[in-house]
């Protein structure tokens, strides 16, 4: 339907899309639309504004470039280390291969950790061991395992929680007696003797 009266129109469409530190704004202003082609002009304005908004939306939310595009995935890296020389596992994961595999099996047997979203338990433990064993940053682990920073952080914290839960199975309070390995070894006993006396005194006070 054609417009019969003059319309003083000001349309301002503001689009603010934030991606990192980038801000984009689109301003569309039309004034004094009074010609016989008012209706067609309005259609053009609306169409242009809508197309622009859709283009920005696609650019920032749909057309994402894959960052982690290495042909060697995290799972492949773990398999390569575990199937390689024993020294590689020791160097990478700070434990011998059979110890690493036994730890992973234990976590699975106790149902403390399980495979999830294509990430195996072995890969999760490897992420944790590289982080604590080499003091690797999240960004380095992202590149090594081809996962996002959020995924790396989530798996690291999951393994950390279950390792803490295993403390009672591996950490035993020191008893009042000095272990034979320390008592009969002159390299150790002179240094641990003070600690032994302290433990005896502390145990006596607690009892």
Describe this structure in words.
Strand 1 and strand 2 form a beta hairpin. The protein is an all-alpha fold and 207 residues long. Helices cover 58% and strands 3% of the residues. It is elongated and about 100 Å long. It is built from 10 helices and 2 strands, in the order E-E-H-H-H-H-H-H-H-H-H-H. It has a two-stranded antiparallel sheet. It folds into 3 domains: 61 residues; 97 residues, no CATH class; 34 residues.
Features:
elongated; 3 domains; disordered N terminus; 207 residues; two-stranded antiparallel sheet; mainly alpha
What's this, in brief?
Residues 70-164 form the DUF8040 domain. With 207 residues, this protein is mostly helical. It is built from 10 helices and 2 strands.
Topology:
Blueprint (H helix, E strand, L loop, with lengths): L16 E3 L2 E3 L13 H25 L11 H9 L3 H8 L3 H13 L11 H14 L3 H8 L3 H17 L1 H4 L9 H4 L5 H18 L1
Antiparallel strand pairs: 1-2
Helix pairs in contact: 5-7
InterPro entries: DUF8040, HARBI1-like
Protein name: DUF8040 domain-containing protein
